[in-house]
Amino acid sequence: MRFVIVTGLSGAGKTQAVRNLEDLGYFCVDNLPPTLISKFGEVCIQSDGRIEKVALVMDIRGGKFFDGLVESLKYLKDNEFKYEILFLDASDEVLVKRFKESRRKHPLAPDGRVIKGIGLERHKLRELKDRADIIIDTSKLEIKDLREKINEVYGEEGQIEREVAITVLSFGFKYGIPVDSDLVFDVRFIPNPFYIPELKKFSGENEEVKSYVLSQNETREFVDKLKDMLEFLIPSYEKEGKRQLIVSIGCTGGRHRSVAIANAIYEILGKQGRRVSVEHRDINEDINKGGVKL
Questions:
Q1: Which residue in 15, 220, 256, 287 has its CB near the most CB atoms, within 10 A?
Q2: pLDDT, tens digit, for every residue of 242-259?
Q3: Domains of the chain by range and CATH?
């Protein structure tokens, strides 16, 4: 049985995520008191295989009951009950925007500023986020993008495949470090094509920009060392049962250096037969300023 606990920040997309899980055949329960997790798990096990996939939404709406979640998870672990935690996150700016658009009050600040409630919630969820198996940052995701990520991890193919899924993510530091990063590398020490007039208007996916970035001595040495590090780390993550690894590579704007290097790392891992994908979060940030719709 696959037993998934869905949690995260209010406004980060938990409702949409659980809808996607329902579409994948999961038996979903929203806002179950944590003290009932063990009992619910026992009922599922005793269903003689009729319930194979379960998703439970747990968040701060549970009030004082939510404080018992960590203790309940410890009980499950002590009794060798296997479960996974899916944590939905988003930047403060995006969460505030979503609350304003929906005209909702934050559960932890019903009569105050939304940003204050978000800060309190982050503090309460810090330990739970540290325990999460999968973290999805929905700050720049459309509904269809979130659905694809849920399908990738929790669909039939994702259920069978236990090898860690690696995402190589380029980003711009001026737009913030991706909150779901596992490993973050700063490549701003590499010469910047932005200052070369004939390269400035292109991205790191352009062959001339790519050639310029990858021909630098600093780049070649960095890529070699990162390749060695990942070859050491990935098997260790898999041994510990990690399902997802986000390798974030950042430059100033996320358009030139980080894109070219992320693509290079993606190609290296692909040739090794790894489950790997590449994403460029900020490659068009200056062009497309559209908001998130979740």
A1: 256
A2: 778 999 999 999 999 999
A3: 2-160 (3.40.50.300), 165-280 (no CATH)
Per the annotation, where are the binding residues for GTP?
Answer: 59-62
Give 49's pLDDT tier (boundaries 50, 70, 90): low
Tens digit of pLDDT for each residue in 261-280? Answer: 999 999 999 999 998 999 99
Answer yes or no: pTM beyond 0.70: no
- pLDDT tens digits for range 58-115: 888 766 667 778 788 887 778 778 888 999 999 999 999 998 888 888 888 887 888 9
Binding-site positions for ATP read 8-15
Instruction: Report the distance separating Cα 164 and Cα 235, nearest Å.
Output: 9
Q: Can you give the three-state secondary structure of the chain, one letter per residue?
A: CEEEEEEECCCCCHHHHHHHHHHCCCEEEECCCHHHHHHHHHHHHCCCCCCCEEEEECCHHHHHHHHHHHHHHHHHHHCCCCCEEEEEECCHHHHHHHHHHHCCCECCECCCCHHHHHHHHHHHHHHHHHHCCEEEECCCCCHHHHHHHHHHHHCHHHHHCCCCEEEEEEEEHHHCCCCCCCEEEECCCCCCHHHCHHHHCCCCCCHHHHHHHHCCHHHHHHHHHHHHHHHHHHHHHHHCCCCEEEEEEEECCCCCHHHHHHHHHHHHHHHCCCCEEEEECCCCCCCCCCCCCC
Cα dihedral sign, 84-87-109-61:
negative
Tell me the β-bridge partners of 88. Answer: 8, 136
